[in-house]
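thread: overnight batch results

M.L. [08:02]
morning all. the overnight job finished for the chain we discussed friday. pasting input first so we're all looking at the same thing
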Amino acid sequence: MKKIDTSEWKEYKIEDIFSLDKPNPRSKNDYDEGAIPFVASGNFNNGIECYLSIKNSTDFDAGNCLTVSPVDGSTFYQEKDFLGRGGAGSSILILRNDKLNKFNGLFLASIIRKVCSKYSYNNMGNQKKLKEEIIYLPVKDNEPDWKYMEDFIKKLIEEKKKDFDNLMKII
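M.L. [08:03]
and the structure it wrote out:
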């Protein structure tokens, strides 16, 4: 895949694109083992620390969002409903936009992860800092080009699948 031309991308504050929220205060110790992902500030496995059962039908965070770790800026697209680590300190931050989907979500997660990689245990992010972060996005009609982001990831997945298929032929 050729390098992306970002010369005409536009600067946005995260708060101009997303609504920001935090999960309700909760600890994994308050739940039994189950099937719902518990998303915390981890930097791998989509931030999923374990799987738990919910206590009632409203005791979860809705999927189709991005989660950001204030500890190291790890950012993931969460497709399905989950239990987010809430409370003080290193509770995750949640970004939402009605135009978000699996593909443009993956695109945006990589951009936000890069911008927030400066966060550390000694310099943690928070809702206020995240709102002010600047990201650059492709534009169409002076708005973020959601279709471009979606199509880019779809094409990337298709190319990687072809690479994988070719590799499997020689193994």
